[in-house]
Amino acid sequence: MLATSDTIDPRFGLARRVTLAGPLRLDGGVLLSPVDIAYETYGTLNAEASNAVLVCHALTGDQHVASAHPRTGKPGWWTRMVGPGRPIDPDRHFVVCANVLGSCMGSSGPATVNPATGQPWGMSFPVITIRDMVRAQAMLLDHLGIGVLAAVVGGSMGGMQALSWPATFPDRVRATVVIASTARHTAQNIAFHEVGRQAVMADPNWRGGDYYEGDPPSAGLAVARMAAHITYLSEAGLTEKFGRRLQAREAKSFGFDADFQVESYLRHQGLAFTDRFDANSYLYITRAMDYFDLAEEHGGLLAGAFRATKSRFCLVSFDTDWLYPTAESRSIVQALNAAGAPVSFVELSSPYGHDAFLLEAPELNRVVDGFLRAGA
Asked: Which parts of the sequence belong to the AB hydrolase-1 domain (predicted)?
C-alpha cells in the first residue's frame, strides 16, 4: 500500500481511496502499477473476518451503494438492498463496494493520471476485462484483511463480476448472488453498446479521448446513455408511464423539439448522466462487458467455470428484462447443475424491465435476505 484516505459518512460507513503498489496483471498482458481503488465500507469486520459481503456495481454505478453521491447528492443506488434492516445489513455484515477498474469515481481508469506522463491516461489506458475488475477487488480485499467472502452480490454488470468471482477465486467465496445478468453478451447486446460508443467518438469534442483540458464530449455521451437507457426499460413500463402523451404546451407546433413526454424523459436521462460520468470510461467499461464470456475463459464450457468452487449460488431474473432475459439465467443454472454446485433460481414478475433490480422489489429483497441468512 502506498497511500489511503478516509472520509466518515455521518450516518454509517466509510468512503475510502487506496493506492496499492501492485502490479496488477491484466488479461491483456499489461502490468498496471500502482492501482487506485475507491471504495466504501459499511459495518464492522468481525474478529474472524468472516462476515464480509462484496457488492458489485453495474456499468454506470459506483462505490456509493448506500450513501449520498458526492456529485449529485442523490441517495446511494441500492439503498433498497443495503442498509440497516435490509437484506445486506451493516449490523450483520461488513459491506464492501469498490468502484470498478476503468471507472471514473476514484479507481484507476482513463480519467486518472498516468504516473509515467503526469497526464490523464485517456485512450492510452490499457484495455480491461471483467476478470481484471475482479482481480483488482481481490487486491483490495487482501489490503482489508479479508481472505474469504461470506457473499458476493451484484446485478447486471455487477452480476458478471459476481459470477467471475467464484470462477476466478474458487476458494474465496461462500455464497454468490447474481441478479438480472448473463455469462456473456449476445450480438444484440454488443450492437447496442457499439451504437453508444460510436455516438461518443463521433462527438467533435472527443478528440481521440484527449479532452480532459477542454470540453468533454457531452452530446455524444448523452446520446449513448439515451440508447442504453431504453434497453433497461420494458415496453409495458414505457407505455404505462408515457404512452404517446405529448408535452404540455399552449400551442402545439410540429418540429424536432421534445414533443412527446418519453423524448423529454430520455433527453433528461442523457444530460444528467454527463454530469457524473466520464466518456472514455464508458467506452472502456462497455468494451469489457462485451468481451466477457465466462465459458470461453474455461475451455468453452460454462460448467467448467464452477467445478472448483464451493460457493452456493442464487440467481434471479425478471420476466420483462429483454436485455438479459430469463433464458440467460437458466443457462447459468444449467451449467451450475452440471458442475454440481448448489443453486437456487427464481424469475420474478415486474413491469420495469432490466432496471427492476434497482427499484422497489419486495420479492427480490425476500429472496436475497433468505439466501444470505440460510448461509449464515
From this structure: 51-360
DSSP string, 4-15: EEEEE-SSS-EE
In which residue are the cell numbers 413491469 written? 351
User: Angle at the Cα of 64 (from 24 to 273), degrees rounded to 5?
Assistant: 95
Distance CA 366, CA 375 (A): 14
Contact yes or no for 229/195 (Cβ under 8 A): no
Q: CATH number for the domain including 54?
A: 3.40.50.1820
- The reported pLDDT for the residue numbered 4 is 41
Coil, strand, or helix at residue 330?
Answer: helix
Flag whether 174 is marked binding.
no
Same domain, 179 and 229: no
Tens of pLDDT, residues 210-231: 999 999 999 999 999 999 999 9
Domains of the chain: total: 2
Q: Measured between alpha carbons, how far is 106 from 116 in angstroms, rounded to an integer? A: 18
Domain boundary among 285, 309, 336: 285
pLDDT on residue 274: 94
Q: What's the pLDDT score for residue 13?
A: 57
**How is residue 173 written as a grid cell?**
467465496
**Of 242, 267, 285, which marks where a domain is finished?**
285
Q: How far apart are CA 63 and CA 158, in angstroms?
A: 12
112 with 226, same domain? no
Q: How far is CA 187 from the centre of its chain?
A: 20
82 pairs with which residues across the strands? 88
Q: Active-site residue numbers?
A: 156, 321, 354
Handedness of CA 13, 18, 23, 27 (dihedral sign): positive
Number of Cα atoms under 13 Å in the Cβ half of residue 68: 10
Distance between CA atoms of 125 and 281, rounded to whole angstroms? 10
Cα 215 from Cα 63, distance rounded (Å)? 26
Kindly give the parts of the chain with pLDDT less than 50: 1-11, 250-251
**225: annotated binding-site residue?**
yes
What is the residue range of 253's domain? Answer: 189-285
